[in-house]
């Protein structure tokens, strides 16, 4: 993984990989609950909203995607 970030609530863990895949895992058992692709390049940064409902993903082309993660 390139980046790992826990949500402010502590319920989720976001993991970004070099191939642009981002996984959201529950912190109870670390099973993947959602997976998505951050455009075509590596995800370079992860930032959660304060309420842990959204995840912003910045990729190597300076593109930012926002995903709903409830």
Q: What would your notes on this structure say?
A:
The protein has 70 residues and is an all-beta fold. It has strands spanning 3-6, 12-16, 21-26, 32-37, 43-48, 54-59, 64-68. A four-stranded antiparallel beta sheet has the order 1-2-3-4, with no helix packed on it. Strand 5 and strand 6 (54-59) form a beta hairpin. The model has no long low-confidence stretch (mean pLDDT 90).
Number of helices: 0
Give the helix proportion (percent range).
under 10%
Largest sheet strand order = 1-2-3-4
Oligomerization status of the protein chains: single chain
Give the biggest sheet: 4 strands, antiparallel
- Mean pLDDT reading: 90
Q: List the helices and strands in order.
A: EEEEEEE
Give the overall form. Answer: globular
The portion of residues forming beta strands comes to over 45%
Q: Which features characterize this protein?
A:
four-stranded antiparallel β-sheet, mainly beta, 70 residues
Annotate the secondary structure layout.
Elements: E1 3-6, E2 12-16, E3 21-26, E4 32-37, E5 43-48, E6 54-59, E7 64-68
Antiparallel strand pairs: 1-2, 2-3, 3-4, 5-6, 6-7
Condensed summary:
It is built from no helices and 7 strands.
């Amino acid at each position: 993984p390139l980046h790992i970030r826990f949500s402010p609530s502590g319920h989720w863990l976001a993991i970004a990989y070099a191939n642009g895949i981002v996984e959201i895992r529950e912190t109870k058992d670390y099973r993947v609950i959602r997976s998505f692709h951050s455009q075509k390049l590596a995800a370079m940064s992860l930032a959660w909203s304060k309420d842990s409902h959204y995840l912003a993903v910045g990729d190597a082309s300076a593109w930012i995607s926002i995903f709903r993660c409830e």
